[in-house]
Amino acid sequence: MQQGSDNVDPKVAAGFGDEWSTFRQDADHFSASERERLFDSYFHIFPWEALPASAVGIDVGCGSGRWSTLVAPRAGHLHLLDASAEALDVARSNLAQAPNVTFHHASVGNIPLPDESLDFAFSLGVLHHVPDTRAAIRQVASKLKRGAPFLIYLYYALDNRPAWFRALWRLSNLFRIVISRLPAPLRYAASQIIAAAIYWPLARTAALAEYLGLPTASIPLEYYRHRSFYVLRTDAYDRFCTRLEQRFTRAEIQQMLQDAGFADIRFSESPPFWCAVGIKR
């Protein structure tokens, strides 16, 4: 695929193919209980009760299919779309027992479904990695029926964090820029060192603080305090090995959703930030 009307960076898509081929998120590595806890951290604001019977939806940027494994049983039919053929192969394996799914090797700029044909959509941690996030949201909106919900998670611009926190992120971003351009074996090695030397100690520090009754919100990576090392390894790879990353404030996400035709927009007030759901007007 070429970057352009398809709204995909081929190198980024290839990188995610590498990621999901390495971290397959299968039952041997990703426990059902942890999957459900993470799923709830995104989907607790999703209006399941508003969906029609046998609802048809789409996972935009499905990756390994880790969230679709829990959405598919709740839907009449679920489409899984990804720009990486390697990622789709992993998703096919993870959803091999699901009878109501269809896989599409395509980008968000070229969703191969009729306009106004879907009852819901979700895209978690994906559209900040495409060249034009605003256009991607509009493209998803065009496939939804009126009244259909869209759940989206985009990296936040740390707009609800203090200045020192944002400065720390800017430092980490310099490492991401360098690491994401290394050869694949070095990218992997660097991300795993970061997971072991930074993610794990900070996450466990936050867990200890919570156990002692101390506040944890100011501890970087406190979101991971109850996560397994496998999740830490996966997310460190995801964070530091991706060449294209954009971040958005809550207000910017609200505006993009409104401009794409969504109303009744609601944000999650708990991490990960920012997770929002809007209803197609």
Short note summarizing the structure:
The chain is an alpha/beta fold and 281 residues long. It has two domains: 10-157 and 247-280, Vaccinia Virus protein VP39 (Rossmann fold, 3-Layer(aba) Sandwich); 163-240. It has nine helices and seven strands.
Give a verbal description of the structure.
- There is one protein chain.
- This protein has helices spanning 10-22, 32-43, 68-71, 85-94, 133-143, 163-179, 184-211, 229-240, 250-259, and strands at 56-60, 77-82, 101-105, 120-124, 149-153, 262-267, 275-280.
- By secondary structure, it is of the alpha/beta class.
- The chain folds into two domains: 10-157 and 247-280, Vaccinia Virus protein VP39 (Rossmann fold, 3-Layer(aba) Sandwich); 163-240.
- The chain has a seven-stranded mixed sheet, sandwiched between helices.
- A hairpin with a 7-residue loop joins strand 6 and strand 7 (275-280).
- The two termini are 32 Å apart.
- The mean pLDDT is 95.
Strand order, sheet with most strands: 3-2-1-4-5-7-6
Structural class: alpha/beta
- Would you tell me the overall average pLDDT? 95
What is the string of SSEs from the N terminus onward?
A: HHEHEHEEHEHHHHEE
Shape: globular
Uncertain segments of ≥5 residues (pLDDT<50)? none
Q: At the fourth CATH level, what is the homologous superfamily of the largest domain?
A: Vaccinia Virus protein VP39
The first-level CATH class of the largest domain is given as Alpha Beta
Main sheet attributes: strand count, strand direction, barrel closure: 7 strands, mixed
Write the CATH architecture name of the largest domain. 3-Layer(aba) Sandwich
Helical content class: 40-55%
Number of strands: 7
The amount of beta strand, in percent, is 5-15%
From the N-terminal CA to the C-terminal CA, the straight-line distance is: 32 Å
Count of folded domains: 2
**What is the oligomer described by this structure?**
single chain
Count of alpha and pi helical runs:
9
CATH topology of the largest domain: Rossmann fold
Question: Rg from C-alpha positions?
Answer: 18 Å
